[in-house]
């Protein structure tokens, strides 16, 4: 196999240039852009990472950005909107900064009209479960206030509800109190019990308090279940006055209980909003666990705020206890069970601790599993346990922490990809390039490196032979590129030919590049003619290029 | 007088059993930073293990006792593998670990209920039925056996922790988990040792308690809550404190039953705990100024 011989024809040959070099063998043409493209291309797969291009953005006009709907008579806007310009189309757009109110609205709207759209077959069962959901969600909202906002890890929440329910029920049975007094009395009972269990909270921290309240829960259970006055024989206390009239039709009774629980949920949501979102909640956000001393130094009396939130929640829990007694016409012992505490903890853990939507949605999930899918039998508790395990193994803060966790994960991945992408040619270490003032130099080095890489591929015996034959004058394309590069080199350490004796002795020197400092001799070899010296210098430069 | 001594001995017997769980809770918390609320499950698991061994392998009481301990070890290691090892290096470890152990006890309790049914089981008397009379007080063999075997167990564990290489590792983890991991003490490996040892203690207490009371899928709950209360009173992380607290609470139980009434045991107990904790927030023997920061 014969290699196709590539030749270069001197365009000046037609004028008969002196010294020949009309036609010389030369390496085949190489595209200098190739190395450029190769260096600048990404060596890792670049995946598309979305930036909410799917999100609906309503159109806007620059003047209308400030026209917002407000809740009369406050200055609060109905939705937090922001006017922005689309980066691609430059159109003015409105985006919703916080879409949670929309979800809340439709979720609560669904709960409000649920009795009319649920399937007729098992409506009663579903509405009963809905009532349980309303009460438990309210309890869990108060619990979220205690654990999330106040940061007091109390497990005695259901104990407060239970104590209040038992006492109000007992009062209603023995003193004949009407139903509407039960929640009000329950508030006082909740306050009293709250004060008692808030006392150790001032001194104990975190999990010591959690364990203590777990014990308190057991104490209440044992005390109530062994007490004859509270119905140790009948498994609970029944016969309290209720707001659900027994003369109504069963469906009306179901509707009444469902909507009363729904109203309780709304009230609990308002309480959460006004405690967590207002001044007291804000100052507690400054004092998360292990940052208390900072908050104290900033002038925040966090202990007082914590106890206040705890007592407010206890009053609300007492209210719920009274409501519970009036709702079910009594109360059973299972409110104090360890099982109930675990279920409640499952509800707020799966949803995400410290957020109202977490408490409500977590309660919804568990109530559906626990009360609606009853045909699953004990399997449903295993499912709940597996859900809990999944949450703690993989999620940082429950269902509603997924968004933040996903964003963090995505940013991490993005940065990893970016760090693999910035690698260009390794011509300069990253810490070097930050220290360099002239950033053009960084780029010059990068370009220089690419050019040298390209020129290395051109060096071959043909062009060395060509240069040896004729160091000056017109050369082939490949040799010309190499020579241009050599000539453009910086003055320091640039090789030059020194004439020792004209037409007899030539030597090669290197310039210092500094004015006033003499060049240095690089070798002792003596070239007999200037052409030989030119070629020797060329070989030296080629050697430097190949070695660099 | 005779009544009081009888109640005291009862109290000490119960305190020995619950004290084992308390020391287990305490060691787990201080060495691993894990608030293990699945001791209830490990307790029932060990009890059923002993029961199965008695039914299917060999009915010899001592063998059953040791099988209970072995089942406790298995249960402890199971919880360690399911909860501690995956979660121990994640953010919010303490709360996630606690909820994880609760989830394990929920799942485990249901599985035990499914496999063995709600009917209570009884383990054989390990120490026979003999009685000794000392100074007008009758001591039954099971009480003496309970006291002696739990003291032996506790002594063995304390000795092992004081004198062995593994015990040294565990103590290093208690002092400073971060520094311990820097000098090459594996957190996961130590976790398995700790959970195995504490599981063994829980297993022993399960076997001892199930010969007097019955064994059911959720019978571990009360011992766990009692153990947690004792650990809390004694100071989490202190074996000595747990022993003192167990004795105090045992006496309290005996005296309350005698003078006020059995219903009020828990009330006096928690009043006592709250009063102690208000003055010493980290328990009787807990170190005051520095908490373990996991």
SSE inventory with pairings:
The complex is a heterodimer of chains A (548) and B (294).
Chain A: E1 7-9, E2 23-25, H1 33-40, E3 58-59, E4 81-85, E5 92-96, H2 100-117, H3 123-149, H4 157-175, H5 181-203, H6 206-225, E6 236-238, H7 250-276, H8 279-285, H9 292-297, H10 302-328, E7 330-332, H11 338-351, H12 356-372, H13 379-394, H14 402-421, H15 430-435, H16 439-458, H17 461-469, H18 477-487, E8 495-501, E9 505-510, E10 520-521, H19 530-547
Antiparallel strand pairs in A: 1-2, 3-5, 4-5, 6-7, 8-9, 9-10
Helix pairs in contact in A: 3-7, 3-10, 3-12, 4-5, 4-6, 4-10, 5-10, 7-10, 8-10, 11-12, 11-13
Chain B: H1 2-32, H2 39-57, H3 61-87, H4 93-116, E1 131-134, E2 137-140, H5 141-163, H6 165-175, H7 177-182, H8 187-212, H9 221-234, H10 239-259, H11 265-279
Antiparallel strand pairs in B: 1-2
Give the gist of this structure.
By secondary structure, chain A is mainly alpha-helical. In chain A, 57% of the residues lie in helices and 7% in strands.
Question: What characteristics describe this protein?
Answer:
heterodimer; A: mainly alpha; 10 strands; elongated; B: 294 residues; mainly alpha; ABC transporter involved in vitamin B12 uptake, BtuC; two-stranded antiparallel ribbon; 3% strand
Provide structural commentary.
- The complex is a heterodimer of chains A (548) and B (294).
- By secondary structure, chain A is mainly alpha-helical.
- Chain A folds into 3 domains: 134 residues, no CATH class; 41 residues, no CATH class; 300 residues, no CATH class.
- Helix content of chain A is 57%, strand content 7%.
- Chain A has 19 helices and 10 strands.
- In chain A, the strands form 4 sheets. A 3-stranded antiparallel beta sheet of chain A has the order 3-5-4, with no helix packed on it.
- In chain A, a hairpin with a 3-residue loop joins strand 8 and strand 9.
- Chain A is elongated and about 130 Å long.
- With 294 residues, chain B is mostly helical.
- Chain B has one domain: ABC transporter involved in vitamin B12 uptake, BtuC (Orthogonal Bundle).
- Helix content of chain B is 74%, strand content 3%.
- A two-stranded antiparallel ribbon of chain B has the order 1-2.
- In chain B, helix 1 runs parallel beside helix 5 and helix 9 packs across helix 10.
- The longest helix of chain B is centred in the N-terminal third of the chain and has 31 residues.
- Classes of the chains: A mainly alpha (548), B mainly alpha (294).
- Chains A and B meet through helix 5, helix 6, helix 11 and helix 13 of A and helix 3, helix 4, helix 9 and helix 11 of B.
């Amino acid at each position: 196999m014969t290699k196709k011989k590539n030749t270069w024809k001197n365009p000046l040959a037609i004028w008969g240039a002196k010294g020949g070099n009309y036609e010389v063998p030369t390496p085949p043409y190489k595209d200098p852009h190739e190395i450029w493209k190769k260096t600048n291309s990404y060596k890792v797969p670049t995946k598309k990472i979305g930036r909410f291009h799917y999100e609906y953005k309503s159109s806007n006009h620059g003047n209308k950005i400030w026209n917002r709907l407000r809740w009369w008579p406050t200055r609060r806007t109905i939705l937090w909107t922001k006017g922005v310009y689309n980066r691609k189309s430059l159109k003015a757009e409105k985006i919703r900064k916080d879409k949670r109110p929309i979800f809340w609205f439709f979720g609560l709207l669904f709960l409000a009209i649920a009795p009319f759209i649920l399937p007729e077959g098992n409506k009663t069962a579903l509405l009963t479960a809905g009532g349980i959901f309303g009460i438990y969600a309210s309890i869990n909202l108060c619990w979220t206030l205690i654990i999330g906002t106040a940061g007091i890890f109390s497990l005695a929440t259901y104990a407060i509800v239970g104590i209040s329910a038992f006492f109000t029920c007992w009062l209603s049975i023995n003193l004949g109190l009407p139903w509407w007094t039960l929640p009000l009395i329950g508030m006082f009972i909740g306050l009293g019990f709250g004060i008692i269990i808030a006392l150790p909270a001032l001194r104990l921290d975190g999990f010591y308090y959690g364990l203590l309240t777990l014990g308190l829960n057991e104490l209440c259970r044992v005390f109530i279940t062994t007490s004859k006055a509270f119905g140790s024989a009948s498994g609970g206390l029944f016969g309290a006055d209720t707001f659900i009239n027994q003369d109504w039709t069963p469906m009306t009774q179901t509707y009444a209980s469902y909507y009363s629980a729904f109203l309780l949920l709304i009230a609990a949501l308002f309480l959460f909003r006004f405690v967590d979102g207002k001044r007291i909640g804000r100052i507690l956000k400054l004092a998360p666990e292990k940052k208390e001393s900072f908050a104290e130094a900033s002038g925040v009396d966090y202990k007082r705020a914590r106890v206040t939130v705890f007592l407010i929640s206890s009053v609300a829990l007492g209210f719920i206890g009274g409501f519970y007694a009036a709702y079910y016409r009594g109360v059973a012992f299972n409110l104090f069970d360890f099982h109930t505490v675990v279920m409640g903890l499952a509800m707020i853990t799966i949803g995400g601790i410290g957020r109202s939507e977490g408490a409500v949605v977590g309660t919804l999930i568990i109530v559906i599993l626990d009360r609606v899918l009853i045909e699953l039998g004990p399997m449903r508790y295993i499912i709940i346990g597996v859900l809990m395990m999944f949450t703690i193994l993989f999620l940082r803060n429950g269902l509603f922490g997924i968004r933040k966790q996903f964003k963090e994960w995505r940013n991490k991945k993005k940065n990893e990809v970016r760090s693999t992408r910035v690698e260009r040619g390794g011509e300069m270490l990253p810490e070097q390039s930050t220290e360099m003032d002239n950033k053009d130099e960084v780029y010059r080095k990068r370009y220089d490196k690419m050019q040298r890489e390209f020129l290395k591929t051109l060096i071959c015996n043909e062009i060395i032979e060509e240069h040896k034959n004729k160091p000056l004058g017109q050369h082939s394309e490949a040799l010309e590129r190499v020579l241009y590069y050599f000539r453009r080199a910086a003055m320091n350490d640039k090789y030059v030919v020194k004439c020792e004796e004209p037409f007899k002795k030539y030597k090669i020197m290197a310039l210092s590049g500094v004015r006033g400092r003499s060049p240095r001799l690089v070798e002792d070899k003596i070239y007999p003619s200037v052409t030989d010296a030119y070629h020797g210098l060329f070989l030296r430069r080629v050697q430097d290029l190949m070695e660099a | 007088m005779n009544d009081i001594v009888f109640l005291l001995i009862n109290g000490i017997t119960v305190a020995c059993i619950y004290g084992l769980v308390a020391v287990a809770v305490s060691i787990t918390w201080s060495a691993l930073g894990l608030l293990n609320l699945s001791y209830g499950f490990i307790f029932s698991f060990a009890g059923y293990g002993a029961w199965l061994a008695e039914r299917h392998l060999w009915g010899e009481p001592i063998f059953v006792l040791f099988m209970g301990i072995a089942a406790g070890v298995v249960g402890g290691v199971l919880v360690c593998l399911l909860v501690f090892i995956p979660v121990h290096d994640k953010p919010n470890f303490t709360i996630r670990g606690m909820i994880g152990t609760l989830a394990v006890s929920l799942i485990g309790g249901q599985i035990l209920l499914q496999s063995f049914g709600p009917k209570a089981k009884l383990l054989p008397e390990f120490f026979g039925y003999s009685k000794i009379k000392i100074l007008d007080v009758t001591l039954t063999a099971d009480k003496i056996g309970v006291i002696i075997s739990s003291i032996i167990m506790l002594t063995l564990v304390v000795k092992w922790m004081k004198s062995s290489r593994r015990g040294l590792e565990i103590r290093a983890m208690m002092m400073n988990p971060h520094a311990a991991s820097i000098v090459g003490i594996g957190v996961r490996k130590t976790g398995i040792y700790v959970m195995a040892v504490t599981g063994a203690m829980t297993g022993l207490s399960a076997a001892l308690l199930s010969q007097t009371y019955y064994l059911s899928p959720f019978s571990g709950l009360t011992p766990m809550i009692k153990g947690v209360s004792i650990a809390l009173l004694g100071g989490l992380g202190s074996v000595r404190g747990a022993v003192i607290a167990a004795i105090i609470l045992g006496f309290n139980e005996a005296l309350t039953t005698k003078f006020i009434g059995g219903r009020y045991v828990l009330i006096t107990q928690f009043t006592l705990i709250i009063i102690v904790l208000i003055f010493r927030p980290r328990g009787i023997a807990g170190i005051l100024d520095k908490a373990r920061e996991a």
